Amino acid sequence: xxxxxxxxxxxxxxxxxxxxxxxxxxxxxxxxxxxxxxxxxxxxxxxxxxxxxxxxxxxxxxxxxxxxxxxxxxxxxxxxxxxxxxxxxxxxxxxxxxxxxxxxxxxxxxxxxxxxxxxxxxxxxxxxxxxxxxxxxxxxxxxxxxxxxxxxxxxxxxxxxxxxxxxxxxxxxxxxxxxxxxxxxxxxxxxxxxxxxxxxxxxxxxxxxxxxxxxxxxxxxxxxxxxxxxxxxxxxxxxxxxxxxxxxxxxxxxxxxxxxxxxxxxxxxxxxxxxxxxxxxxxxxxxxxxxxxxxxxxxxxxxxxxxxxxxxxxxxxxxxxxxxxxxxxxxxxxxxxxxxxxxxxxxxxxx
Length: 351
Ligand code: HEC
Ligand code: HEC
Hints:
Bound molecules: heme C
CATH topology of the domain at 66-198: Cytochrome Bc1 Complex, Chain D, domain 2
Shape: globular
Helix content: 40-55%
Structural class: mainly alpha
CATH class of the domain at 66-198: Mainly Alpha
Strand content: under 5%
Number of helices: 15
Order of helices and strands: HHHHHHHHHHHEHHEHHEE
Largest sheet: 2 strands, antiparallel
Strand order of the largest sheet: 1-2
Radius of gyration: 21 Å
């Protein structure tokens, strides 16, 4: 009983917080959007509605130091974090035109080096229980070390990066303001980037729907959401990120890798971290917010379209086959997860 009360209290706080995110992130939204805010729904009604949902609205953005957010944004876009000043985090995670990903099957790193897995979006990455497909980084701070020193990504060494940034008077001042006296360290860089990444949250129409505004989704989108629940997608894609909170085998109901062929080390997934045979072919279930904007799909980038990704999930994760109509409805639902950042809808470049 106590536990339930705690859970209900937590949901209430979450619901209240989510109102804040929405208001906070869309200050200049058109009037018709403001009018659709679920203001009339009481907090207790919202809570009761949420208790029945496997998916949860975005929690309030954590309290972030705006100076660190802005320093982190600058570092994220700075190619001096790479060995030859050509690649920044944004090269593979374009937050302006690629919804935080790169639109490639496999990423292109320094000197055209081809990566081994598909780049996930950085939007909402602060909500993941672990980072990377195999979960090898526990936190965003820990994650940053990966690409900077990875020979296929940015190929740099920290002392070189720090020497370069130390020659930039603006950086020296900005680091001092945020982190106090003393020279720039890798920890300061990773901290600022992680703080910036935590600001990359994207409230969507679906959040407004969950919070009680039933007009926020069309009938077809609601039907798609119903199918998403009924078919069991929510067994793995759940919570605030609609994923991002567990590892699962790719190919639970059929042999995905056997059918695809050409098995690589990266396909071993979580096993590469734990060396436990039971973790072979297990991956972090990706969050599905903004998923319609970030093709291609899966760790191997093997599904070019959302249709293909959904049919693959049906076959290999659920042992099912969907009609075109069902796939179309699920896609409509997934598109309602496309969110806003800085008060603007996220975009995918049309090239
Ligand atoms: C060359 C392309 C490339 C560059 C440059 C790059 N990344 Fe990535 N990023 C990737 C790929 C590919 C993955 C997935 C790797 C994996 O899971 O093994 C990834 C994963 C991530 C993740 C984990 C997301 C998740 O859902 O697990 C975060 C966060 C991230 N990158 C942030 C950054 C930051 C910060 C930088 C700059 C310091 C950066 N990336 C630079 C390609 C890149
Ligand atoms: C048994 C767990 C499980 C179930 C059930 C499941 N998924 Fe997944 N989903 C995963 C895993 C694991 C991945 C990542 C697989 C990979 O990268 O190889 C994934 C990936 C995806 C992706 C690609 C996301 C991206 O960014 O690459 C989409 C889209 C998706 N799932 C949609 C669905 C839909 C729709 C359903 C229901 C029809 C569903 N999933 C059911 C575990 C599951």
